[in-house]
Write a structure and sequence with these properties.
Number of helices: 9
Distance between the termini: 116 Å
Shape: globular
Number of strands: 12
Strand order of the largest sheet: 11-4-1-12
Largest sheet: 4 strands, mixed
Radius of gyration: 29 Å
Order of helices and strands: HHEEEEHEEEEEEHHHEEHHH
Structural class: alpha+beta
Strand content: 15-25%
Length: about 325
């Protein structure tokens, strides 16, 4: 081969090879029945939604989701591992005790209403405003861990409603279905429930709503809210851990709200907005905008005197103690 036939490409004309693109992550589209999972999705549930579940326990969890036609990947249902003393086992030969647990299906209040509206289309009606009983004082103990041992720091008092009641109205039924829960039965000890201590009325109201919905619509029977298990110690799933991580964020928002409002506690509606993700500044701003839109300038009296009660007195919040009559 001659030198004329041998052509070496210059650095300028040498073709540059493009790097290979990484393999695309293919995620299959959900089927028309998203509660029927593939093998890959079952493994995802085992590793994230019901972490640590055995094959038998996982079959139970997925069977419950399929029965209620709920999609665990949309957060419509998740599962919490809780202590069950009736399942404890004791080996007499090795003298070892095995702690028993059971998996409980957990849904949100909107998920519960979704099932009721879907499976009871003809009967589904409305839910009344939550009614609360008189305010009572309850005690809770603050603990501190010192060298791996819990030490009581002191006792604190909390103002909470004695009971909460909700009416579920069904089409064609002249009488409502009543759901009533009592504080001492739902939350006998709120030491391990900081979110309940921050929003006692909202949490007890959700429990009353859930009870009314379950009594009115049988399709929701067997499903419970996380608010109904706040005081029990348990080993949470990954979904439950995400929910519990919001507690510190909500506490910061409540503290910021009190700091910006001069120590005034937020109302129940404002607590609900902060629980949904709004910041303390956004809640206060929306309240000021609504107050400005609803307020109308009043004309002064003809005689020029100022009425004594020009501002309406608002209701006492759950965490505030009413002032004694002078």
């Amino acid at each position: 081969m001659s030198d004329a036939q041998l052509e070496i490409p210059s650095e300028k004309h040498r073709s540059k090879r493009k790097p290979k693109a990484p393999a695309a992550l293919v995620i299959p589209a959900p089927t028309k029945k998203p509660w029927e999972l593939s093998e890959a999705e079952v493994e995802l549930v085992r590793n994230h939604i019901a972490k640590g579940a055995s094959n038998e326990e996982l079959s139970f969890c997925l069977g419950v989701a399929r029965r209620y036609k709920l999609d665990p990947f949309r957060g419509q249902i998740w599962f919490v591992k809780r202590r069950d003393k009736s399942l404890d086992k004791y080996d007499r030969q090795t003298k070892e005790k095995t702690t028993g647990y059971r998996w409980i299906p957990i849904v949100g209040i909107n998920g519960l209403l979704h099932i009721a509206a879907r499976d009871h289309k003809k009967e589904f009606g409305s839910i009344s405003k939550i009614s609360y009983g008189p305010m009572i004082d309850v005690e809770w103990t603050e603990w501190e861990w010192v060298q791996g041992k819990p030490i009581a720091k002191g006792k604190h008092k909390l103002r909470v409603p004695e009971w909460a009641e909700v009416n579920a109205f069904k089409r064609g039924d002249p009488l409502p279905t009543v759901g009533q829960v009592f504080w001492e039965e739902i939350y006998p000890d709120v030491t391990n429930a900081p979110l309940v201590r921050q929003m006692p009325r909202l949490m007890l109201g959700k429990c009353a709503t859930a009870q009314a919905v379950r009594k009115a619509y049988p399709a929701t029977d067997g499903l419970y809210l996380q608010e109904e298990f706040m005081v029990e110690p348990y080993e949470p799933s990954e979904q439950a851990k995400l929910t519990e991580s919001k507690v510190s964020v909500i506490e910061e928002r409540l503290a910021k709200f009190k700091a910006l409002s001069g120590g005034k506690a937020p109302s129940e509606e404002q607590c609900s907005l902060m629980e949904q993700g709004m910041s303390a500044e956004e809640v206060l701003l929306s309240a000021s905008v609504s107050d400005g839109a609803n307020s109308k300038p009043k004309e002064p009296p003809a005689n020029g005197s100022v009425p004594p009660d020009i501002w309406p007195k608002g209701a006492v919040h759950s965490t505030e103690k009413p002032l004694a009559d002078s």
